Amino acid sequence: MPGFRQELVALFGQPVEENPTQAMVEAAFGAAGLDWRYLTIEVAPEGLADAVRGARAMGFRGFNCTIPHKVAVVEHLDRLSHAATLIGAVNTVVRRGDALVGENTDGAGFLAVLRSRRDPAGMRAVILGAGGAARAIAVELALAGAASLTVVNRGAGRGRELGALLAGLVGELSVVELGGGFRVAAETDLVVNATSIGLFPDVEAEVTLDLAEVAGRALVADVIPNPPETRFLREAASLGCETLDGLEMLVEQGRIGFRLWTGAEPDPAVMREALRRAFAAS
Ligand code: NDP
Question: Distance from the CA of 264 to the CA of which of 90, 105, 202, 204 falls in 20 to 30 A?
């Protein structure tokens, strides 16, 4: 006989009004026939410790963390995955028995999309950005055997921090200050915009990476999920480059979280459609 108690997962962040994850995950719960709920909960920084204690007390199966909790949540957890330890940030927490385990699915989601097109082993990649998304992607690329990483960032400090994190994880590493722009070298296999440039509503903002030397050859990716058809990806496609968009990445990182929480396989088409509708309505 079916019971009346639902399994709970959640998102903790501030602000969370515009976050579409609930729409994606609950659509997947419904399609998988799971009576689970995903709650979008605004948690201020000073309330994070209590929120995590509350999640433990109420038997949450896990939760996502977004800005500003991805780093701060670490001290409230029992252990971290290898990638989350290296990245130094957690976006997905999973309850295993009585323990809360921190994972980071941002980079893994990106890698899942990448692997559907090309093998990351031996790749030479240029990553624009040094924030949370860039750190996660760079670490996962290094763990997947990328041969060379070039981190290009506007702020020198954050670029250096990411460089220090990657030292020893990858054979060839350069950290470059963006300045007025950066010309991507001809031998590059993968170019990633891992900044917030292009995010709605500032959709015409320009990514100042010059792709002329990799035209028709490099795979070009963007983390921006809304709108996924970014100006940067349109320009790359017009140069004959194959592209990967941030909506696919968001779906893939959501799929990984869903599997970790439920042990079941979600339907990615349902998740993608739910996200598209959520973005169209926002
Ligand atoms: P952070 O705030 O941690 O980092 C932002 C990065 O963008 C920094 O490197 C910053 O450079 C750079 N940046 C911002 N504006 C500019 C600009 N005008 N010119 C040059 N560089 C700029 O954010 P996150 O890394 O957490 O998120 C970045 C983007 O990734 C967001 O848009 C988010 O939506 C997206 N994202 C997508 C995911 C997906 O699944 N598709 C998952 C996670 C994130 P500086 O250091 O100089 O400030």
Answer: 90
d(CA 125, CA 223): 15
Find out whether the beta carbon of 254 lies less than 6 Å from any atom of ligand 1.
Answer: no
Query: What is the atom index within ligand 1 of the atom nearest the CA of 195?
Result: 7
- Is the distance from the beta carbon of residue 249 to the nearest atom of ligand 1 less than 6 Å? yes
Does the predicted model carry a pTM greater than 0.90?
Answer: yes
Q: 158: CA distance to ligand 1 center in Å?
A: 12
* Whether residue 226 has its Cβ less than 6 Å from ligand 1: no
The pLDDT profile of the chain, 282 residues, written as one tens digit per residue, is 568 999 999 999 999 998 999 999 999 999 999 999 999 999 999 999 999 999 999 999 999 999 999 999 999 999 999 999 999 999 999 999 999 999 999 999 999 999 999 999 999 999 999 999 999 999 999 999 999 999 999 999 999 999 999 999 999 999 999 999 999 999 999 999 999 999 888 999 999 999 999 999 999 999 999 999 999 999 999 999 999 999 999 999 999 999 999 999 999 999 999 999 999 987
